[in-house]
Amino acid sequence: MVLENERLEEISELLKALAHPTRLKIVSILISSKQCVKNLSEMLEASQPNISQHLNILRSKGIVGCKRDGSVVCYYIKDPSVIKLYELLIKEVYSWQEK
Amino acid sequence: MVLENERLEEISELLKALAHPTRLKIVSILISSKQCVKNLSEMLEASQPNISQHLNILRSKGIVGCKRDGSVVCYYIKDPSVIKLYELLIKEVYSWQEK
DNA sequence: TCATGAATTTAGAATATAATATTTTATGAG
DNA sequence: CTCATAAAATATTATATTCTAAATTCATGA
């Protein structure tokens, strides 16, 4: 099934958002539990602005959502289809031949 | 399930290879039928060197393979898990909420 | 061998991404 | 109000991608 261009661009935008180690790890953490920015930046050993920028990219694609709770902002997986996608990826990567 | 970093990098490499409209379209065409570079460049209305470069990226990740047949080189999907991934993507993108 | 078509390679310029450092905004405590 | 902390926004720099153009390789047929 060959897709029309518009939908195809949409999919590659989604893939591009996920195609970064830090963002992929953010997604994998958020699938397990919602987290605030500070926790994420400590877990990932990256600066707070850096994580915030990555979260912004994920949010702009509708992958994650956030909710302010007092002074902290909690992020969570917003699009359930991303969980399916992630699970397929970690399942299929086992049969992945390098090179 | 949170992955270790190495596997995570591997997955994001795979996603990065697919996260380009032209390459995604190449994959979608090759899932239907093997094709030579010239055909692909005509179908996608892109230059032959450009398509050749994209094919090289897909090949370096093991996504596609190729076989020379006389003067033409035929490309085909090498990793079957990419087909599963593609099918999930076009199925899930229907429930995709923009923004 | 020469010409041609198919494909790849290389070099470059233009654009896009990503990280760091800095500043700004928001919230809550005292 | 002032201070401290969390988060976001901005600016800058460094790096990576992508496309175009030109040159090169490879196979085939006249």
Can you walk through the features of this model?
Two copies of one chain form a homodimer. With 99 residues, chain A is an alpha+beta fold. A three-stranded antiparallel beta sheet of chain A has the order 1-3-2. In chain A, strand 2 and strand 3 form a beta hairpin. The relative contact order of chain A is 0.14. The mean pLDDT of chain A is 91. At the A-B interface, helix 1, helix 2 and helix 5 of A face helix 1, helix 2 and helix 5 of B. Chain B binds a DNA duplex (30 and 30 nucleotides) through helix 4.
What fraction of the residues of chain A are assigned to beta strands by DSSP? 5-15%
- Low-confidence spans of chain A: pLDDT under 50, at least 5 residues? none
The span between the termini of chain A is 27 Å
What is the N-to-C order of secondary-structure elements of chain A (H for helix, E for strand)? Answer: HHEHHEEH
Number of contiguous helices of chain A = 5
* Share of helix of chain A, binned: 55-70%
| Major β-sheet profile of chain A | 3 strands, antiparallel
Coarse shape of chain A: globular
Number of strands of chain A: 3
